[in-house]
Amino acid sequence: MSKAVIISAGTITDYGYTKAFIEDGDFVICADGGLTHAERMGITPNLTVGDFDSYKGDAPGEVRKFNPEKDYTDTHIAVSAALEKGYKKIVLLGAMGTRLDHTMANIGLLEYIAKNGAVGEAVNENNTATVITGNAVIKNDGSKYVSIIPVGRAKGVTLKNFKYLLNDYDMEFSQSIGISNEFLSGDGIVEIKEGSLIVIKSKD
Hints:
By secondary structure, this protein is α/β, with parallel strands linked by helices. Helices cover 20% and strands 33% of the residues. The protein is elongated, with a radius of gyration of 17 Å.
């Protein structure tokens, strides 16, 4: 099955790089102002959702409009739509930017995706973020650093085939012990007994 790609209104500086994540057959959802990014990439979305406080034009294709006074962000609504359609891989573009609150909320959506049985990634020109809720192999893609950050508290974390190892360690969000780790040769292995972990691969 193809993946769902959600384009949000966060920062995108390299449209050529970003557009490469969208393949033929992908289901593209724009979250409100993300439609401006889609237009600049020459992408016509399958679905656009949001309260349209950012995008003021006529949206193409299927549109779901919501009241601005709503409980969930436009990106959250887009993620829910992708999950409802049964997609097991969801890529978020334009999900990180100058609004720290929205960036953090979108990272939180990666856990929401994982807990609903799918794989989510938030990607920009320098970083790829995902959330794991169990044992996982972290692909070595040549990134300079890989950071592992607990969502709240994660118990029994073991890191293998990284420069800095952990063995059955309880991680806290308030600690920085998981920041700026590095791959050795091959992929990294993460084992976790309880909780969720944010995995961020950084190029710089």
